[in-house]
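Co-fold these.
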Amino acid sequence: MSDNIAVTGFGVICSIGTNAQECFESLVNKRTGIDNIKYLETVHKDAFKLGEVKRSNEELAEMLGLTSIEGVSRTTLLAMVAAKEAQELAIQNNGTKSRTGIVSSTTVGGMDVTEQNYLKKTKDYSYLYSHPCGDSTKKVAELISATDYYTTLNTACSSGTNALIHGVRLLKYKVLDRVIVGGVDALTMFTLNGFNSLKILDQDFCKPFDAGRKGLNLAEGAGYVVLERADEVDKSYCKVSGFANANDAYHQTASSPDGEGAYLSMNEALDMSGLNPEQIDYINVHGTGTDNNDLSEGTAINRIFGIGKVPPFSSTKSYTGHTLAAAAGIEAVFSVMSIVNNVIYPNLNFKTPIEGLNMVPNTEVLKDKAVKHVLSNSFGFGGNNSTVIFSE
Amino acid sequence: MDIYIKSSDAISAQLSFEKGLPEYFESGEESFYNCVKPEYKKYISPKLLRRMSPIIRNGVACSLSVLKQAGIEQPDAIVVGTALGCLRDTTSFLTQLIEEKEELPNPTHFIQSTHNTIAGQIALLLKCHNYNFTFSQMHNSFETALLDAQMLILDGKASNVLVGGVDEMSETTYDLIKGLDCYKGTKPGEGAGFFVLSREESVVKFEGVRIINSDKVDFEKELKDMGLELDEVDLVIGGNNQEDEAGYMDFCSVIGNKPYLWYKPFVGEYGTASSFAMWMACKVIEEQKVPECWMKNRIASEKYNKVLIYNKVGNEHSLMLMTKNKV
Amino acid sequence: MSELKEELKAKLIEQLNLEDFEVSDIEDNDPLFADEGLALDSIDALEIIVLLEKEYGIKLDDPKKGKDIMQSVQTLADFIEKNRK
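Predicted complex below.
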């Protein structure tokens, strides 16, 4: 199935912009979205930096033309904005399709609503209806008329790519004619305190692939791409040429020193695409900026591409922060825009290479070279590692 | 390509685990159902057990049981469905967080609260590097996992897939949800149902799963798409919680007078309860008999070769079809 | 000191759900992380960091620095004696 699935639309909202164009402008102008906490209710307001979407829930509802946001989580609102943008673009390119569905992903679901009500000790528990991961997906499907099939992946931070993998098979086995795939997560006290308890948050700006990295900046957002069978579309942006999911089977949260899971997922995705490693023009790395992830991922990349032969790579989490289940969706959109515009994005906040890896991320906006094949990594808790390759 | 169910097991409020369909019921005096606890140590070392909440224990033990039955050390893929994930750990972390005003909550609950903890733990225990997915789509969590497993086999990416559904219910959760409309007329419950879906021939054949999000369902058409006429169905397993449940009227009138089993009054309502129904279907097809206590109507059949499972919550429906191989 | 060590053992058993252990099963010098000792792992190490901060007011932000401190109940107790407020 190496080149029969086409990307026909994309949409994104995150800390660097509320649509694809805004995000692209931020990427090529080196504007980070990570900042002091403005929207999230937490006692840690002064302690951490986050990649917040710079819109209140009311403002997001206004963007969507919703009159009431009663029982609608921030997760749902973010997903709606990005999925709607993606779907509209696909319709503009190829008209409507008879069977349309959505495969989304989220780690916290409606936790933003749950925790605020828990905090206020609300006695009417109907707020819990928005809690399940599947609730946001259902609401988005209804908003954008994608109810022929919908489901939600939750494999932590690799979820978005896994949503894409399930989506491709839904097209291949004709369950659907068009599928919107990606992920979403809103910032919550739950995740901020969770990651803080793991001691993997940098209180300053995260520094992916830098020797002095101290951890990640948590963030929120949503990103979706629209997939259709390539032989049934007039206009598309690129193709999905390869993908894979593999398990590190090493530790509940940490990555193995040799990056076995990451190695296996990249290797299998390359295999499926029929590409040689040297044909990859850009790697959008997972690159969270934690000590463990970057070392393990770097080791795996070296195993695949060879030391000193790694193509230009960057972690766009230095702009957006780590958006958890949204990360792979957002980075899929960035990868598609990299191919469409022939641009390779820089990795911000990099100074010193990690000892022993011999890897230096790309730190400038590269516009002088054709970008034909982009590989994007996304890894999550539970040793869950996924890779997708987009090709011109 | 034909797909088979090589092995199946279920942990539930009834004595189902490592057994056939029980002939009698454990009394269900409580206001919600909890699972009968298996001897976990048979499958999981104490070192790992100490950190596992019931949902993880049940998911892992049930998985290891079906793998053992199928004689498989490493499945080619692990696909889990869970509607609400690891609720106890989520509740513990959230409660502590709020009560202690975000001061130093314990990391273990956060780590274990992730929905994919169960699938991740299975991989870790088996040292299995293969495909590892977790779906969470409320009442269709198990069904979408099952569809994914089916497509993986069709795609030639797997010969044996471990697939299952698992959810948990605690006292704390029950107190929160008991007043909600969606649980009216039901007894909330929990359980784990796991299967090895395989290309290799065995007694039970998996014919397919349909997921329909709509107010109306054309059952005859859906069955036809699965390659079966309504008349051919020998047995129906329905997700009714009560006698004459309004939401099941359409289905019951289409299905007519066929042997009809139900299970939710005895194991409870939960997001992945239909995985228990699939286990029932496997057992009935293998054993060719139905203990009377599971019958909703008193109609019996001479053979149980084609079993249809129907589940419905709101406007979300699912149909699953299992048949006896080579009859 | 011996009181602190007994207290620590009880807290470890409770916090880490060491169901199969009693206070009397743990020797002061038993290795915490080796299989022949308590066979703890990195998640337990994070829990011990939380325990140090909550119970004894000692903040240890870099988990890597915990390695020497967390060798045994003895080394933990020594560290607490020296640093507690």
